[in-house]
Design brief:
Chain B: Its main location: membrane. Chain B: It is found in: Cell membrane. The complex is a heterotrimer of chains A (about 350), B (about 300) and C (about 260). Chain A is α/β, with parallel strands linked by helices and about 350 residues long. Helices cover about 40% and strands about 15% of the residues of chain A. Chain A is built from 16 helices and 11 strands. In chain A, helix 8 (about 170-180) packs across helix 9, helix 9 (about 190-205) runs parallel beside helix 16 and helix 10 runs parallel beside helix 11 (about 230-245). Chain A is globular, with a radius of gyration of 22 Å. Chain C is mainly alpha-helical and about 260 residues long. The chains are: A alpha/beta (about 350), B mainly alpha (about 300), C mainly alpha (about 260). At the B-C interface, helix 1, helix 3, helix 4, helix 5 and helix 7 of B face helix 1, helix 3, helix 4, helix 5 and helix 6 of C.
């Protein structure tokens, strides 16, 4: 009987003995933010393996890194998350000699307030946060998706109760509620935040869930008719709906009260196990052709000038992906928060989550 | 002789004791201590150690003069000042209690049947109860996500029936209803087993005697079986109530906006809001609740716990 | 027993068994469904098993889970057996508290305290932190199973061995150990399953790329479920079933002792 047990252990051991590649790049990225094809191209190019972990919100990423998640090479944070990462010493300066493709960048996206001189970061792609919807249902019900009222006004929500999801992200959801109330989403005025909180709590009973990631699928399936989310995710949902021959489209549009614009950046972690592969990856992603896949396949906006020639004209026309100068006036990049304002927002968020 | 006995005692109990002190007692003490600290600028905890401006060396920043800059009762005050937190505790207690009652209701007939089955069948019947419990916890939750999903057969069937009666279609997934049903599902074996262990030991002669004295079936149950089974009931209740109270994955996956429980709030403090001190306060409150309940069950069960293990 | 009452009991019990098994049957059935949606039955396919075996991340996660389960259960069995022995032989105060509390409190509490502990030590999160945490929560379960085995043991056998001149160590290895071995094996299996199954504690103490099967399944549930999850679930159920059958063969008393 001991022998049998030993045999069992050995069998289990053999199952685990399969070789593991030594050259592995660990990327911590937003989910649905790189096409599997692009990853395959890079793996072929560097003769290495890419392992990805995903997050659905900046808070989640910051919390995981602050909680000692180590071993990542690359992380792809939104602008406002750069200062906390830099000030906490979690990232390392970029070795620009290893990134010749930096020359491809659109200067308008460089040298942002979050990382002057791009010491630590280089833009990857950008998205807008907006409302995506099932065009057939929303038309039938006569809902106006170009206003944030679609997710905040109980009168509108009554028609789509349980068919709405919003982002599980304090910064994004509060920003939307602030704009709906006519405030600047970057204001840290506690009274305005309180007002936004009330808006959210009033609308909350009508929402199915706080959802950062699976709304792509829920929209495609038809479980959800309207979702607060990122433009590239809506693009994905629409592509999936077409592939699955669903009898509707997933449409998306900017809101008249304004939207947030997230420019996401590649950064190399301090203590990255493979900085060499990390810089290779950054340089690879800044190549015009490779970068254009972020737009053509994922539907995100592109800060890479060399990518423009490869971007499909159909996508260039979508305002939510490539905002016009007019749209730009109502797009806000969210500021970084620290200390008291951060604690205030988190407290309000806890109250939102806990409120009945 | 006593010396070598003492040595043996330490050799045997030493290793597990040290391991658990290191990986259970110390971490728990750190969490309790964190409840009295301030959060850092980017979340987490405000450091107690830092570079001394004069020497640049890493030193303990707290001393007898400035301790109130580093230690506080504010986190506890926040818990008691705002009604939402206590309300959430009450709500979670309600969910856990409902789960326990439903588990009891479903388990009793089953445990009774197993205990009264021929001996050769009992092991198999018990195994059949445990078997689903050996599949991964998340899989058991996922199964219900499939069943309750709006496109699933269950939701469609129920909504068609409701439509006949003239009631508007209902949502099942992402509701408190989903949370309760999944909580019952994942905890059911914890109730069946101690109940069965208890019922198995009952002396059937007592029931026969009661019948001879003219007791009806209900009287026999309420006057004989039920009181005798109470230790099993309390043991099962403790095994269901306590884990159900602190759960976060179930409300997280099927609870929607209104189904959250204490566990979710605690998780949020650590993994989203990064307010560790307040998260620690919530954890302490949860621990106290659990100890209170466990104590209550132990007192009520009078040794019922032995049956559970 | 009255047949009327018996019928009613059977009906209720069958209902409960149905409640226990139907969801799992549905998971397995949908793993063969030719549709991404887990909603209507479209047609039979083994496509999702193909997808599963081509999914490197899932296979890596499965390998990690097995490895962590194996290593942590060996250590947990060692510490747990000692703890069980100590609790049986000696009147101790601290050890029983430390052994039993982790079992009694909700998992999330242990998860958080370990998270803070590892962060405070600036410990690199990963397989090691997961393994250390798994050992910590498994010790108690092993200890209880071993202790209950010891309690059922006939103490006079050990005394007889001592009377015949065996030293304490000899008596342990020749008499006590073989008698409690089924308990130790049961405890080891339990520690292994607990480790493979654990989501909550792993979720908090896992680091980069250190994915285990439950973490991988959770992230698929959160992002986008495909019937690939059903496929891996079905295989996992098959594996546990096999483990139980093996356990029943190796140590027939093991399953009873563990519950």
């Amino acid at each position: 009987m001991k022998k049998q047990f030993l045999a069992l252990m050995l069998a289990a051991g053999a199952a685990m003995g399969t070789a593991q590649a030594d050259d592995v790049l660990h990327i911590y990225n937003w989910n649905n933010y790189i096409a599997p094809e692009t990853v395959k191209h890079f793996e072929a190019d560097c003769k290495c393996k890419v392992v990805q972990d995903y997050y659905g919100a900046m808070e989640e990423m910051l919390a995981k890194l602050a909680a000692g998640a180590k071993g990542y090479d690359i992380v792809v944070p939104t602008g406002f998350a750069l200062p906390p990462l830099i000030k906490q010493g979690l990232v390392q300066p970029l070795d620009k000699s290893k990134i010749p493709n930096l020359k491809n960048m659109n200067p308008a996206f460089m040298n942002s307030q979050f990382d002057k001189g791009n010491v630590y970061s280089v833009p990857y792609a950008f998205t807008t946060t907006l409302i995506g919807y099932n065009d057939k249902k929303i038309k039938e019900l006569g809902i106006d998706p170009t206003s944030w009222a679609a997710i905040f006004d109980p009168k509108v929500l009554e028609k789509i109760k349980g068919k709405v999801t919003v982002l599980d992200d304090p910064k994004e959801l509060f920003a939307a509620a602030m704009m709906y109330n006519g405030f600047n989403p970057n204001s840290t005025d506690i009274n305005q935040w309180q007002k936004a909180k009330e808006t959210i709590i009033k609308a909350k009973p009508y929402w199915a869930a706080f959802n950062n990631q699976s709304y792509i699928k829920e929209l495609t399936v038809g479980n959800i008719w309207l979702a607060h989310g990122y433009s590239n995710d809506m693009f994905q949902a629409n592509t999936d709906a077409h592939t699955a021959k669903r009898p509707f489209n997933i449409a998306y549009s900017l809101q008249k009260e304004g939207n947030t614009l997230s420019v996401d950046n590649m950064m190399v972690m301090k203590g990255a196990p493979r900085p060499d592969l990390a810089f290779k990856f950054i340089n690879f992603m800044l190549d015009g052709k490779n970068s254009s896949e972020l737009t053509n396949m994922i539907g995100s906006g592109n800060p890479n000038a060399a990518a423009a020639q490869f971007v499909s004209p159909d996508i260039k026309k979508i305002n939510a992906v490539f905002p016009t100068p007019d749209n730009m006036k109502k797009l806000y990049q969210l500021n970084s928060l620290e200390g008291k304002p951060l604690r205030d927002l988190n407290r309000l968020w806890t109250e939102v989550k806990t409120a009945r | 002789m006593t010396r070598s006995k003492n040595l043996a005692k330490w050799l045997i109990s030493g290793p597990p004791l040290l391991y658990l002190i290191f990986f259970f007692a110390i971490p728990t003490a750190m969490m309790a201590f964190a409840a009295f600290r301030f959060p850092g600028d980017y979340g987490g905890l405000m450091p107690l150690f830092g570079a001394d401006p004069a020497t640049g060396k890493n030193v303990l920043l707290v001393n007898s003069q400035n301790w109130h800059d580093y230690l506080t009762l504010d986190n506890f005050a926040r818990f008691f000042q705002e009604a939402v937190y206590i309300e959430l505790f009450i709500k979670s207690f309600g969910y856990a209690l409902l789960t326990t009652l439903l588990c009891l209701l479903a388990s009793y007939p089953l445990a009774w049947l197993i205990a009264r089955s021929p001996k050769k069948w009992r092991d198999l019947l018990v195994l059949l109860v445990i078997l689903p419990f050996w599949s991964n916890f998340l899989i058991r939750v996922y199964a219900w996500m499939i069943i309750l999903g709006p496109q699933g057969y269950f939701a469609k069937l129920v909504n068609t029936l409701l439509g006949v009666v003239g009631i508007a279609p209902q949502q099942f997934l992402f509701t408190p209803f989903a949370v309760i049903i999944v909580l019952v599902y994942v905890h059911l074996p914890f109730m069946v087993l101690p109940l069965y262990a208890n019922l198995e030991k009952h002396d059937m002669a007592l029931l026969d005697a009661a019948q001879d004295l003219g007791a009806s079936r209900w009287q026999r149950f309420w006057k004989v079986t039920w009181p005798l089974s109470l230790p099993g009931v309390y043991a099962g209740a403790a095994l269901v109530f306590i884990p159900a109270l602190g759960i976060f994955a179930v409300p997280d996956l099927v609870g929607g906006t209104d189904g959250i429980m204490i566990g979710n709030l605690i998780k949020q403090q650590f993994l989203d809001s990064r307010d560790w001190p307040f998260g620690s306060v919530l954890s302490i409150m949860l621990t106290l609740s659990v100890l209170l309940m466990a104590g209550l069950m132990a007192v009520l069960g009078r040794g019922g716990k032995r049956n559970a293990l | 027993m009255h047949s009327k009452q018996s019928k009613w009991l059977w009906a209720a019990s069958l209902l409960v068994y149905g409640f226990l098994y139907l969801p799992l049957v549905i998971v397995v059935v949908y793993s063969f469904n030719d549709s991404r949606l887990n909603a209507e039955w479209v047609g039979f396919t083994t496509h999702w098993y193909g997808v599963l075996f081509a999914d490197d991340q899932m296979l890596t996660a499965a390998r990690n889970s097995l490895l962590i389960g194996l290593v942590s259960s060996i250590f947990a069995t060692f510490f747990g057996t000692l703890a069980g022995l100590a609790m049986y032989k000696y009147k101790l105060r601290l050890l029983p508290i430390l052994v039993l509390t982790p079992i009694a409190i909700p998992e999330i509490l242990m998860a958080l305290s370990l998270l803070m502990f590892f962060v405070a030590l600036n410990f690199s999160m990963g397989y090691l932190s997961i393994g250390l945490a798994h050992i910590a929560f498994s010790i108690g379960f092993v200890a209880i199973v071993v202790r209950s085995r010891l309690q059922g043991m006939d103490e006079s056998l050990v005394e007889a061995a001592r009377d015949l001149g065996a030293g304490p160590l000899q008596a342990f290895w020749r008499v006590t150990f073989p008698l409690i071995l089924p308990g130790i094996i049961a405890g080891a299996l339990m520690a292994f399953t607990l480790s493979i199954d654990d989501f909550v504690i792993t979720y908090f103490v896992a680091g980069a790329g250190a994915s285990t099967l439950p973490l991988q399944i959770y992230s698929m549930l959160k992002i986008a479920v495909t019937p690939e999850v059903n496929a891996i679930s079905s295989l996992l159920m098959l594996l546990t079933l096999a483990l139980i059958v093996i356990a029943a063969k190796i140590a027939p008393g093991a399953l009873r002792a563990s519950h």
